[in-house]
Design a protein that fits this description.
mainly beta; ATP Synthase, domain 1; ATP synthase F1 complex delta/epsilon subunit N-terminal domain-containing protein; ATP synthesis; CF(1); ATP_synth_F1_dsu/esu_N; ATP_synth_F1_dsu/esu
Length: about 90
């Protein structure tokens, strides 16, 4: 079962979809999530969020000032500032 991922900034949804892997930078270091991961609540550090879509595509976004949560196979990343990298 894939991860259901939502990456939002203060004013808009930046990306949402299904993924096999999500890697984000927190204040304690970089952390990765795959389906079946234990629940997590963490504070984002300024850096990249890297998402591997179930289709194999890659999504990279810069994010800062927020948090991420993982519950079941749902990943929510809420950032004060976030934007996709071209």
């Amino acid at each position: 079962m894939p991860l259901k991922v939502s990456l939002v900034s203060a004013d808009a949804e930046v990306w949402s979809g299904e993924a096999s892997l999500v890697v984000a930078k927190t204040i304690l270091g970089e952390i990765g999530f795959m389906p079946g991961h234990e629940p997590v609540l963490a504070i984002l550090a300024e850096g990249q969020v890297r998402i591997t879509e179930t289709s194999g595509g890659k999504v990279i976004a810069n994010a800062q000032d927020g948090f991420l949560s993982v519950e079941g196979d749902e990943v929510m990343i809420v950032a004060g500032n976030a934007a996709l990298v071209a």
